[in-house]
Amino acid sequence: MSVAVPFPTTQPPGYEWFDDEPEFSAADHLALEAPAEIIMLADLGYDADEIATKATPVAASTPFRVLSDEGAAIMRATADRLRTFRKPAGDRIENMVRGGCYRSRWLRDLCTSTELAGHLSAIYGIEVAPHPMALHLGHLNFAPSTIEVGIDKWHHDTLPLDFVLTVTDPAEVAGGRFEYFVGTRHEAAALAAEGKTPPAERTVAPDFPGAGWAIALHGDMVVHRAGPLDELCERISMVNGYVALDTLTDEQSRSVDLMAIDDHQVLFSEWAKMAAWRTTGRLSHLVETMGFEDRDTVIAELEFALEDAQRALDEMRAGKDTIDHYGG
Prior knowledge:
Elements: H1 26-29, E1 38-40, H2 41-44, H3 48-52, E2 58-61, E3 64-65, H4 69-82, E4 87-89, E5 93-97, H5 105-111, H6 114-124, E6 128-130, E7 139-142, E8 150-155, E9 161-166, E10 178-181, H7 185-193, E11 203-204, E12 213-217, E13 224-228, E14 236-244, H8 264-289, H9 295-318
Antiparallel strand pairs: 1-2, 3-12, 4-5, 5-7, 6-14, 7-14, 8-13, 9-12, 9-14, 10-11, 10-13
Helix pairs in contact: 8-9
């Protein structure tokens, strides 16, 4: 299994490894099972032209098992240790933790597992790798302090591909269901412009059999949320990010949104590495494939190759202090 950008060999300032952690073992801690069904972007209403530029035509899977009982127990204990670092994500999420893979070696090794990435590749139908930005690995969402709002508002993700994993057993949680919209981002935006959110009759709330189960998402394309609790209780989920190794597809990230929530000393370096990796891939493709073309064709090809690096530079300079979502 290929790697897009290797996980950093040093920790950012202010991050320290947990002590007394178990060592991650794929044989003992994973219990990978295939999902029963795959939902396609076309099933949500996207047209063929838009789908053709994306990483994969897959939209989502039905829930599938990721962790063994032992792995699920360690995941819960790790989340409990990371809870102390929780903070809000603007007005979208009250309690989340990012950067946990710089604190827990077990979580890092789970989230960068080649076995797990291979399993997701089979689900997406393309070769994927753990996300180049380690901040997108092992993201944790915790329950809010009130039941009046959703755990996470309706949104599409700031990264292209991911899975959402149940850390707590859904059978022990009152409400807080994961839901996705059977529709497109464009429809969700139109609803939001009218002060509306996806209607119940067009949402799906998959049944997760227990802790350690996940649903794969084309996160950039599927509008989803974690709904409100019915009563205050513990509810934890983990999101792990991936990218397609084909750098010729759309980049499909909203890294600019992360400026409102992530440590800039970590974010900008990770963001630059991801842009450099994608640009390197596109430049290599140009070197290998370009023939003797007219000026306008050459300019267009070179602009395409440099697109991700230029976009990253423009967005870093412009800055942003909000996170986009569709309400709810």
